[in-house]
Amino acid sequence: MGDIVLASKITHVPSIWLSLQEGKHHGIRRPAEEALAEVGRRARARQVDTFVIADTHWLNSSGFHLNGKARHEALYASHELPHFIQGLRYSYPGDPELAALIGEEITAGGQKALVHDIPELGLEYGTLVPMHIMNSDEPKIRVLPIGCNMYSTVEENLRVGEAIARAARRSGRRVGFLASGSLSHQFPTNALTSQYLNRISADFNAQMDHTVLAMWREGRTEEFLELLPDYNERCRGEGAMADTGMLFGILGGTAYHGRGEQLCDYFPSTGTGQVVVDFSVQLAA
């Protein structure tokens, strides 16, 4: 019987890639690098077979999409920030079988799921930056990205998370779920962008991010889920905070009483709020 054996909220900001490269930005995101590496170590210790990654940089406008290729392999440059991320070569095994099961369960829950095996469909940096740090050892863990619908509701994403958990239990896989996206996500205006590499766009956003992190650390899930729609709207949620909704659907929604372990200090990046938090999981009996 399969299960969700790891569930984490992670960062994927491009400045992490810069931090890994030689040059003036080398090491600027070292705490985030170390936190992602720790999630990777935990995944291997828990014998994760497949990473299911809710990638808020793979944005969909209709339905919920899964990249179900058997192999993900290409040379990547970011279309958004080619001066930040280029020359990123990747090769990971995929998981078509689990993709199909998740698609079935999302559909059974009353929503539209599309599972793709398209040679030209590559990975986005919301998957690639974390995987470069977390999944470099051999044998590599399977990678299954799910896109985030930018017009989805909190309730829809909670149900998608529930569907992912049901599919994991059916699959026989030990699944590590990664909610890859920011906390607040308000960018500065274009003229000011270069001044905000290590700054938050608004004090209100930082205060809200810290409030949410306290809720997670203290296990106040019901209170957080009541807040989530307003938090998403007022703090410019990345990809409708779909990754976070899926994460809490996987964990059990308001029935979840576990806590999040913050693995690095909260940090701003180009106006946005970033962190890595690993949540305790309750394995099925």
Feature tags:
two-stranded parallel sheet, 8 helices, Protocatechuate 4,5-dioxygenase, Chain B, six-stranded mixed beta sheet, globular, 285 residues
Question: Would you give an account of this structure?
Answer:
The chain has helices spanning 14-20, 30-45, 96-108, 125-134, 154-171, 203-218, 221-234, 242-251, and strands spanning 3-10, 50-60, 64-67, 71-76, 88-93, 113-116, 142-149, 174-180, 260-262, 267-269, 272-274, 277-279. The strands form four sheets. It has a six-stranded mixed beta sheet, sandwiched between helices. Strands 3-6 form a two-stranded parallel ribbon. It has a two-stranded antiparallel sheet with strand order 4-5. The chain is built from eight helices and twelve strands. The mean pLDDT is 96. The chain has 285 residues and is α/β, with parallel strands linked by helices. The chain is globular. Helix 3 crosses helix 5 and helix 6 packs antiparallel against helix 7 (221-234).
Distance N to C terminus? 10 Å
Q: Any idea what the CATH architecture is?
A: 3-Layer(aba) Sandwich
Strand order, main sheet: write it out: 7-2-8-1-12-9
- What profile does the largest beta sheet have? 6 strands, mixed
Global morphology: globular
Give the total of beta strands. Answer: 12
User: Class, according to the CATH hierarchy?
Assistant: Alpha Beta
Radius of gyration: 17 Å
Q: What is the assembly state of the chains in this entry?
A: single chain
Mean pLDDT: 96
